[in-house]
Amino acid sequence: MTMNETLSVIGCGYLGATHAACMSSLGFTVIGIDTDPEKVAMLSRGELPFYEPGLDTLLAQEMKTGRLTFTTDFSAVAEADVHFVCVGTPQSKDGLAADLTYVKSAVAAIAPYLKDGSLVVGKSTVPVGTAQSLRNQLAESAPQSDLAWNPEFLREGFAVEDTLTPNRLVVGVANDRAEEILKSVYEPIIALGTPWIRADLPTAELVKVAANSFLATKISFINAMAEVCEAAGGDVTVLAKAIGYDPRIGNRFLQAGIGFGGGCLPKDIRAFMARAEELGAKQALEFLREIDAINLRARQRVIDVVRSDLSENLSQYKIAVLGATFKPDSDDVRDSPALDIAAQLHAAGAHVVVHDPKGIEPARKRFPSLNFAESVTECVKGADLILHLTEWKEYRALDPSELGHLVKNKIIIDGRNALDRDLWRSAGWKFHALGRTD
Ligand code: UGA
To answer: Looking at the whole model, is its pTM more than 0.70?
Structure first.
């Protein structure tokens, strides 16, 4: 394949919009396809429907080149040689398994237009076995095309960097030709020295969920240690630092707090358990049930600290919540621990006011009954307690002395172990953090 050939990207959400803009920046002509006309209209104007640092600039820049276009018309794939499927695989409404509706319908929708020799490349996170069944489906509907799986490991907040300089490229292929096509697409990234891993289809699918399960396990491990530290009078932040110096353990993803959320880790570990059970390997992933339980318990533990600081009956109290998104540098509130805690406190009768630098609108859509403040000042005014639940940089820069004049009670709970405890305490605040007892 040469650089003037054309790629299509099916599904222009987080993953697809990023992939489309990044592939365009590598010099390809890219057609982005999505069923949502509003999303397509926004992207076509060079506007991003979500917040992702750096991607807005890249999108606008690539739109100007004329190489990148967006449409709702699936027949546009007829122009392209390689088709990246980037649609969502959310948790099903009626269980733990992933909902594959969008993946199946995306492949069915492009099949009639596929050129002979074209390659469909799945990037969505799917239960193992999905790729093979889609490949069988294509063998009937578009016999001159092939299908490969190329899982994506990008993190929200670092989407462009992770796409253009990933720490590895993994391709699940059924033959050499598919691998060669993918090698030529990713040639500029391979040239940077990026490790290239060829796998069979099931292994490629498994690499993705294994990686996310490992990350979830690391987080729940440190949150379990936080629970023990609380019981034993220890400090989980010191413990994490100390074990992290062992390179076999490493210090990343050992930040104790209210746990993981977002559109990936929680639903991926659940879908993995559901799939293992179908395959007769339920026992192998039983531990993920505990990982999920530890994670959800962290949310409850914060609420317990709030009750012990204020009262069992929260109806008299104003609680200021700093952070609504599932992590900083994102406007994503899917399965956000911060928003879940805010909603639970609201349901328990507290007067909850939420602030977030980027996530107020999506949070309001999800929980219209919550109160939102446009500024930290407005949020904390008259508060009986502040909860710090998403570690945005601007919260770390807050001046505890100034804030002390605005609140009713100087009590703060750091749900992310990210604030400077000594600074807050020296300004007269009662400061609690998960996993730290003194
Ligand atoms: C995650 C993976 O990190 C990506 O590699 C993967 O591609 C992506 O899912 C996906 O499957 O698409 P992401 O959901 O953007 O990426 O978020 P992470 O950075 O993994 O954070 C997940 C959650 O864990 C956040 O709520 C974060 O606050 C929490 N976390 C993270 C902790 O509580 N402690 C930590 O030490 C690290």
So the answer is: yes
Ligand 1: atom nearest CA of 390 is 28
Residues in a beta bridge with 404: none
**CA-proximal residue: ligand 1, atom 20 (nearest):** 155
For residue range 237-295, list pLDDT tens digits in order. 999 999 999 999 999 999 999 999 999 999 999 999 999 999 999 999 999 999 999 99
Backbone region of residue 141 per phi and psi (left: phi > 0; alpha: psi in -120 to 50; beta: other values): alpha
Residue from 12, 86, 229, 264 carrying the catalytic annotation = 264
410-422 residue pLDDT tens? 999 999 999 999 9
Q: Is residue 55 part of a domain?
A: yes
Ligand 1 test: best mutation among 123, 168, 254, 265, most atoms within 8 Å of CB? Answer: 265
Q: Where are the beta strands (DSSP E) in 345-416?
A: 351-355, 371-372, 385-388, 411-414
Query: Ligand 1 site: residues with CB under 6 angstroms?
Result: 125, 152-156, 212, 215, 219, 253-255, 257, 259-262, 264-265, 326-327
Find the mean pLDDT for residues 133-141.
95
Cα torsion 270, 275, 279, 283 to 10°: value is 0
CB-based contacts of 140, cutoff 8 Å, min separation 6 = none
Q: Are 318 and 350 in contact (CB under 8 A)?
A: yes
Any domain includes 246 = yes
C-beta neighbour count of 25 within 10 angstroms? 20
DSSP-assigned beta bridge partners for residue 418? none
Q: Which residue range is the domain that position 36 belongs to? A: 6-199
Residue 196 CA to residue 186 CA, distance in Å, equals 10
**CA 267 / ligand 1 centre spacing (Å):** 12
Residue at 430 is within a domain? yes
**315, exposed or middle or buried, with CB in 10 Å at 0-12, 13-18, 19+?**
exposed
Residue nearest to ligand 1 atom 23, measured at CA: 260
- 21 is written with which tokens? 């803009």
Locate 75 and state its tokens. Answer: 């027949």
CATH of the domain at 134: 3.40.50.720
Let me know if 264 is a catalytic residue.
Answer: yes
Q: How many angstroms separate the CA atoms of 14 and 331, rounded?
A: 11
Number of domains in the chain: 2
Residue whose tokens read 């209210």: 258
Q: Residue 13 and residue 45: Cα distance in Å, rounded?
A: 16
Nearest residue by C-alpha to atom 37 in ligand 1: 253
Asked if residue 224 belongs to a domain, the reply is: no
**Domain shared by 68 and 151, yes or no:** yes
